[in-house]
Design a protein that fits this description.
The complex is a heterodimer of chains A (about 260) and B (about 325). Helix content of chain A is about 30%, strand content about 30%. Chain A is built from 7 helices and 13 strands. Chain A has helices spanning about 35-50, 70-75, 95-110, 130-135, 190-195, 205-210, 245-255, and strands at about 1-5, 10, 35, 55-60, 80-85, 115, 140-150, 155-160, 165-170, 175-180, 200-205, 225-230, 240. Chain B is an alpha/beta fold. Chain B has 2 domains: about 5-180, 3-Layer(aba) Sandwich (Rossmann fold), CATH 3.40.50; about 200-315, Rossmann fold (3-Layer(aba) Sandwich), CATH 3.40.50. In chain B, the strands form 3 sheets. A 9-stranded mixed sheet of chain B has the order 9-8-7-10-6-1-4-5-11, with helices on both faces. The chains are: A alpha/beta (about 260), B alpha/beta (about 325).
């Protein structure tokens, strides 16, 4: 069985995230970055499939040079190989262009049974790229899986939707997305960290994928950002220490705002 | 006026509040055309008319509920080809965002997700999004194709504008691919008797400080007619179901009032509630980051402050 896990290198949410002056793109260079936390669940689930049977797990990412760190982390968790699509023309690509590049890269990877993804990135949080890839490749897609089983050429699982829980099945090859409820991602072990140093990581350019630079990047995006404004910090409100009347004072405040 | 497609989010014809918000927004942009997929269109008609739908398109594909996302995207393409809308609006939820993603590729159109406001502009609809845990506000628009915009619940106050919509049925031939992902079982979430978390005007949430006892949180929620939420710490401890998690990996809510009880306010949680209009916190720890965000905060024990608040609300309401 061959599994490709899609990973994204994102700015760390606990440090200051910002936009590049001038072009309003997410600053991915001047900030502290890492493997998107939600992608770790997809890597972990791939490892579980590998450990339960036999699977070759490849990590695929599109991103700047530093995105190699995200691939490395996934390899340390136990994935077998990595592919990093890196090209200066990709700067500012929208979700549609990103999905095009990932779809072309998957075609170049060749045979696979499962493409696994997290439920969304922790920076853009759109959660649309997996469905776009499936659409481009003509593959079945199931997102938001809270558990999954692969057997007899079929993936089945529980999809945790907004208002209902659905049990779903799809034939392989398929694109699946998993939630943060599906497992508890492992920390890389010392052995895993050492082993990752010897694992192969290929670097592909757009030319390798047959994608023209005109099809990607900021100038090819089908959306445009008009303005970006930092939200003024919330005004410091009133803080009272409970002196036996905390509940009443809380209700007084709520009443002043007409909530009671 | 040009047609604006609105995908109706409903359960057997019961239209969700978020759809009435979409219709209200659609009226700013053009003539709202409501698309109903699945059973119950007749029942939905009254609500859709009340909120200004000028026409209602019913998709006839009897077995569509047996499959997941793609059939709905194919149905929307069929309707879009017929109606030629100048924009397509969907609710920002898991299902509709996936439908929107398929649509964007199929129609060759730009997509914007999670808008908290949409206004008409000289070059098409202008969206406002709240990004990076609510720290930035971004205005954007689609430049290519038919703008596909998913809008977060509570983006606007639904306003009625009664019409008598015309109704027509469009038949859709599903592709073989659309029938590959089968739904073998569907169980609606258990009803709590409380408002839906994403749509509630007031949310009361509990965190680590509850120690697993959500009774005071639920009591205050009920006194305020609110939905109940939980922090990731509370959910990970198994104290409250994941379906109620507020935060980056749970629900991102933006109610009129958010009450955080026993929640420290880690970035992960703030990302899910920071854009609430009014924030109130109750926490034992005067150093808790949530106090920085709160419009009003009580430093104290939630197990005494919350019950007293409930009592006071009941006293005032007689």
């Amino acid at each position: 069985m061959k599994i490709v896990v899609l990973c994204k290198y994102v700015p760390n949410a606990t440090s200051e995230r910002k936009f590049v002056d001038g072009d309003h793109t997410t600053d991915r260079v001047g900030v502290d970055g890492l493997l998107s936390e939600l992608d770790e669940y997809a890597v972990e689930e791939a490892m579980k499939i590998k450990e339960a049977g036999d699977a070759q797990v490849t990590i695929l990412t599109v991103g700047p040079a530093a995105a190699a760190d995200a691939v490395r982390k996934a390899l340390q968790m136990g994935a077998d190989a990595g592919v990093h699509v890196v090209d200066d023309s990709l700067h500012g690509s929208d979700a549609l262009a990103t999905s095009l590049v990932l779809a072309k890269a998957l075609e170049k990877v060749g045979e696979f049974d499962l493409v696994m993804c997290g439920m969304a990135s922790t920076d853009g949080e759109m959660g649309v790229v997996p469905a776009m890839i499936a659409e481009r490749l003509g593959l079945p897609h199931v997102g938001y899986l809270g558990d999954l089983t692969v057997a007899d050429g079929t993936v089945t699982g529980r999809r945790d939707g907004d208002v209902a829980t659905e049990h779903v099945s799809a034939p392989l090859p398929a694109v699946v997305g998993v939630t943060d409820q599906i497992n508890e991602p492992r920390y890389p072990s010392f052995k895993g960290i050492m082993a990752a140093k010897k694992k192969p990581v290929e670097t592909w350019s757009l030319a390798d994928l047959g994608v023209s630079p005109d099809e990607v990047g900021l100038s090819a995006a089908w959306t445009v950002v008009g303005s970006v404004a930092k939200r003024p910090p919330r005004g410091h409100g009133e803080v009272v220490a409970d002196a036996g009347d905390g509940g009443s004072r809380l209700v007084e405040f709520l009443a002043s705002k007409k909530f009671v | 006026m040009s047609p604006i497609l609105v995908l109706v989010d409903h359960h057997d014809g019961a239209v969700r509040k978020a759809t009435t918000e979409l219709l209200t927004i659609a009226r700013r942009l053009g003539d709202p055309v409501a698309v109903v997929i699945g059973h119950g269109a007749e029942k939905a008609l009254e609500t859709l008319g009340a909120y200004g739908a000028t026409s209602v398109v019913v998709v006839d594909a009897p077995d569509i509920d047996d499959y997941l996302i793609l059939p709905r995207a194919e149905a929307m393409v069929a309707v879009a080809e017929k109606v030629q809308p100048s924009a397509i609006l969907l609710t920002s939820n898991a299902k509709s965002k996936e439908i929107a993603a398929h649509l964007a590729v199929k129609l060759g159109s730009g997509i914007i997700t999670d808008a908290v406001d949409v206004q008409p502009g000289p070059d098409g609809p202008v969206t406002t999004q709240s990004v990076f845990a609510g720290n930035y506000s971004v205005q954007a628009r689609v430049t290519t194709g038919t703008p596909i915009i998913t809008v977060k619940p509570n983006a606007t106050t639904p306003e009625q504008a009664p019409t008598s919509p015309s109704m027509e049925t469009v038949s859709v031939e599903l592709s073989d691919l659309a029938r590959t992902v089968k739904v073998t079982e569907r169980a609606p979430r258990g009803r709590t008797g409380r408002p839906d978390l994403n749509e509630a005007a007031v949310v009361v949430s509990g965190g680590r400080g509850t120690g697993g006892d959500f009774a005071p949180v639920e009591a205050l929620a009920d006194a305020l007619g609110a939905a109940v939420g939980a922090s990731r710490a509370a959910v990970d401890s198994g104290w409250y179901p994941h379906a109620f998690q507020i935060g980056q990996t749970g629900h991102v809510v933006s109610p009129q009032l958010y009450v955080a009880a026993g929640i420290s306010g880690a970035i992960q949680h703030r990302a899910g509630m920071q854009t609430s209009k009014t924030i109130v916190a109750v926490n034992k720890d005067e150093e808790a980051p949530i106090l920085q965000l709160a419009d009003f905060a009580v430093v104290g024990d939630l197990f005494t402050v919350l019950p007293q608040a409930v009592e006071e609300i009941q006293r005032r309401q007689g």
